[in-house]
Write a structure and sequence with these properties.
Keywords: Aminoacyl-tRNA synthetase, ATP-binding, Cytoplasm, Ligase, Nucleotide-binding, Protein biosynthesis. It is found in: Cytoplasm. GO terms for molecular function: arginine-tRNA ligase activity; ATP binding. InterPro entries: aa-tRNA-synth_I_CS (IPR001412), Arg-tRNA-ligase (IPR001278), Arg-tRNA-synth_N (IPR005148), Arg-tRNA-synth_N_sf (IPR036695), ArgRS_core (IPR035684), DALR_anticod-bd (IPR008909), Rossmann-like_a/b/a_fold (IPR014729), tRNAsynth_Ia_anticodon-bd (IPR009080). By secondary structure, this protein is of the alpha/beta class. 39% of the residues are buried. 49% of the residues lie in helices and 13% in strands. Strand 7 and strand 8 form a beta hairpin. The strands form four sheets. It has a five-stranded parallel sheet with strand order 6-5-4-10-11, covered by helices on one side. Among the domains are: 90 residues, 2-Layer Sandwich (Gyrase A, domain 2); 122 residues, Isoleucyl-tRNA Synthetase, Domain 1, CATH 1.10.730.10. It has 20 helices and 14 strands.
C-alpha cells in the first residue's frame, strides 16, 4: 500500500476505535485529507481532520486530535504530534520507507500503474486537424498533451481509447482540391489562381509537383470537375499519410481514425430524425434549426441549411451521437481555445439527443509562442509560413518538444524557449532529467569495474544502512508516485508528472553530490545501488507517461 493510503487507513481505523469506545460520537465524518508539510520538522504528512470534524463530534479540534493520536499504535508510525488549533503531524518509521523501496524494485516497469479497470471506459479525441496541410506547433502541443493524457489515464487503470476525427468532408476538402489544381496548372505554364479560401503553403506546390512528376500533364485533358475530384482524393491520401507519419515520429499513436465522410448522409439524417422525434428541431426559412437555447446556448443553431447541405454542427452532432452509442463512460475532447464558444452548442445538441452532456469533458488548449534569443518567432525561415511541428522537431528533438509542451497546464499560454530546449545544461529540464537516468547507468558501469555485482533480487540488501536525509527524501518522493498518477489522471493534468520527475531528478543529483555510492562499505554500496535502481525505474516510468525517452547514455 502506498504510504499516504496506509496513513489514511490508519487514521480511519483510529477514529473508528475512538467512536467504538465512546470517546468520539457516532456521525458522518469528513474524508481524511493529508498534505506534505512545507517544513520537514512538521513530519512526513499533516492532516486537519480533527478541525474538519469539530461540527460532527461537537468537540474542540485538539480534543478530537488527541482521541485520534491515542488510538494510532502502528509499527510503521514513529510518532504523531498535535500542533496549533488541531493539526496532526505524522512522522513515519523508516521501515515503511524501506518497504516502499522494495515494492518499487519488485514492480519495475509496472511501478505506479494501477490494475486495468475494464469498465472505466474513456475516449480521448485530440488534434483532429484538417488533412489539408502540415501540423503546426499548436497542433504539436495538443498532440503531446493528448497522448500524455492517454498514457496517464492508462497508468491510472482506465480503459482508454485514443481517437482522431478526420475532417475529410466539406468545403475545406474542396478548397484543397482547388488549391492543388491551381498549382498544377501554374507549374504547367497555364494561367490559374488559388481560390480566396484556398491553401497557399509550399506543401501544396509539392503535391502538385509530385502529380506532374508521376503523370505529367495527363490531367489537363480531363474535365475540370473530374480533375478536381481526382486531385481531392490524391491530396487527401498524401496529406493523411504525412500526418500519420509526423504524429508517429512525435510518439503519438491512435486506436481509431474516424472519418467524417462516414457520417454523410445517413448518420447525419439519423441524428436529425432523433432530434425531430424529440421535438428539438424546427424548420424556419427552409432550414432546420436546433433548439439549443433550451440548453443554455445563446441562440438556436442551423443544422441543415436551406439548400439541404448539413452544417459543421450537424456532422458534430452525428459524430458525438456515434461516440455515445459506442458506450464510453467518459468522453474527453481536446480543442483549441478558439473553440470556446462551440462547447455550449455541442453540449446542447448532446442534451437534445437525450444523452448526459456531463459525460463529455472539453479541455481547451491555449496558444504556444516560440522564442529564440528572447524574441518571438512566428514564421519559418524556410517557407515564410507558420512553423510546422516537423520543423520544431528538427530543431529541438522530439523529447524536448514533448516535455516543453507538457510541462505547463493546458489552460495556460506556453512560451516555448527554443534555445533552452536545445541546450545541454541543467537549465534545460528534459536534459536535466534524462541526464539523471543516464548517470545511473554510468554508476552501474563503475560498480562493475569495482567488482560489485548488480543483483536483481535485492534480498540480501541491508536497508537500514540508508539513513542519510537525501536518501530518505528520495524514497518518500518515489513512494508518492502512484498517488501522483491517480490524482493527475483525475484532474487531467499530465504536467504534474513532468513536475514530479523533474523534482525526483533534482533529489537524485543532490544525493549523488552528497553520498558516495561505490565505496568500501559493501552493505551501504549495495543499498545505494538498490536505491538508484528504484530512481531509474521511477524516472523511466514517468518519462514513458510523457512519451519522452529514457536514455542510457547522454
Amino acid at each position: 500500500m502506498e504510504m499516504k493510503e496506509l496513513l489514511q487507513q490508519g487514521i480511519a481505523e483510529a477514529m473508528a476505535k475512538a467512536i467504538h469506545s465512546g470517546v468520539l460520537p457516532e456521525g458522518t465524518y469528513p474524508d481524511i485529507s493529508l498534505e506534505v508539510p512545507p517544513q520537514k520538522e512538521f513530519g512526513d504528512f499533516a492532516s486537519n481532520i480533527a478541525m474538519q470534524s469539530a461540527r460532527v463530534a461537537h468537540k474542540a479540534p485538539r480534543a478530537i486530535a488527541q482521541a485520534i493520536v491515542d488510538e494510532m499504535k502502528y509499527p510503521w508510525l514513529e510518532k504523531a504530534e498535535i500542533a496549533g488549533a488541531g493539526f496532526i503531524n505524522f512522522f513515519l518509521n523508516n521501515t515503511v520507507l524501506y518497504d516502499s523501496l522494495q515494492q518499487i524494485l519488485a514492480a519495475g516497469p509496472q511501478y505506479g500503474k494501477a490494475p486495468l479497470r475494464p469498465e472505466d471506459t474513456v475516449q480521448v479525441e485530440y488534434v483532429s486537424a484538417n488533412p489539408t496541410g502540415p501540423l503546426h506547433v499548436g497542433h504539436g502541443r495538443g498532440a503531446a498533451y493528448g497522448s500524455a493524457l492517454v498514457n496517464l489515464l492508462c497508468a491510472a487503470g482506465y480503459n482508454v481509447q485514443a481517437e482522431y476525427y478526420i475532417n475529410d468532408a466539406g468545403n475545406q476538402m474542396n478548397n484543397l482540391a482547388a488549391s492543388v489544381n491551381a498549382r498544377y496548372l501554374e507549374l504547367l505554364g497555364k494561367e490559374s489562381q488559388i481560390p480566396e479560401n484556398g491553401y497557399h503553403g509550399t506543401d501544396i506546390i509539392d503535391t502538385a509537383q509530385a502529380i506532374i512528376d508521376q503523370d505529367g500533364d495527363a490531367y489537363l485533358a480531363m474535365p475540370e470537375q473530374e480533375r478536381l475530384e481526382f486531385f481531392k482524393d490524391r491530396a487527401y491520401v498524401e496529406k493523411m499519410n504525412i500526418l500519420k507519419k509526423d504524429l508517429a515520429h512525435f510518439n503519438v499513436q491512435y486506436d481509431t481514425w474516424f472519418s467524417e465522410r462516414t457520417l454523410h448522409p445517413d448518420a447525419i439524417h439519423a441524428a436529425c430524425d432523433v432530434l425531430e422525434k424529440r421535438g428539438k428541431i424546427y424548420e424556419k426559412e427552409g432550414a432546420l434549426w436546433l433548439k439549443s437555447t433550451e440548453y443554455g446556448d445563446d441562440k438556436d443553431r442551423v443544422v441543415i441549411r436551406d439548400n439541404g447541405v448539413p452544417t459543421y454542427l450537424a456532422a458534430d452532432i452525428a459524430y458525438h451521437k456515434n461516440k455515445y452509442d459506442r458506450g464510453f463512460k467518459k468522453l474527453i475532447n481536446i480543442w483549441g481555445a478558439d473553440h470556446h464558444g462551440y462547447v455550449a452548442r455541442v453540449k446542447a445538441a448532446i442534451a437534445a439527443l437525450g444523452y448526459d452532456p456531463d459525460q463529455l469533458e472539453v479541455l481547451l488548449l491555449q496558444m504556444v509562442s516560440l522564442f529564440r534569443e528572447g524574441k518571438p518567432v512566428k514564421m519559418s525561415k524556410r517557407t515564410g509560413q507558420a512553423i510546422t511541428l516537423n520543423e520544431l522537431i528538427e530543431e529541438v528533438g522530439t523529447d524536448a518538444a514533448r516535455y516543453f509542451f507538457i510541462m505547463r497546464s493546458l489552460d495556460t499560454q506556453l512560451d516555448f524557449d527554443l534555445d533552452l530546449a536545445k541546450s545541454h545544461s541543467s537549465e534545460n529540464p528534459v536534459y536535466y532529467i534524462q541526464y539523471a537516468h543516464a548517470r545511473i547507468y554510468s554508476i552501474y558501469a563503475q560498480a562493475a569495474e569495482a567488482g560489485i555485482k548488480l543483483d536483481t533480487d535485492w534480498s540480501h540488501v541491508v536497508w537500514n544502512t540508508l539513513q542519510e536525509e537525501e536518501e530518505l527524501e528520495i524514497i518518500k518522493k518515489m513512494a508518492a508516485f502512484p498517488n501522483i498518477i491517480k490524482q493527475a489522471a483525475r484532474d487531467r493534468a499530465p504536467h504534474r508528472i513532468a513536475h514530479f520527475v523533474y523534482e525526483l531528478a533534482s533529489l537524485f543529483h543532490q544525493f549523488y553530490n552528497h553520498c558516495r555510492i561505490i565505496q568500501e562499505n559493501k552493505e551501504l554500496a549495495e543499498a545505494r545501488l538498490a536505491l538508484i535502481t528504484a530512481v531509474r525505474i521511477t524516472i523511466a516510468n514517468s518519462l514513458a507517461i510523457l512519451g519522452v525517452s529514457a536514455p542510457e547514455k547522454m
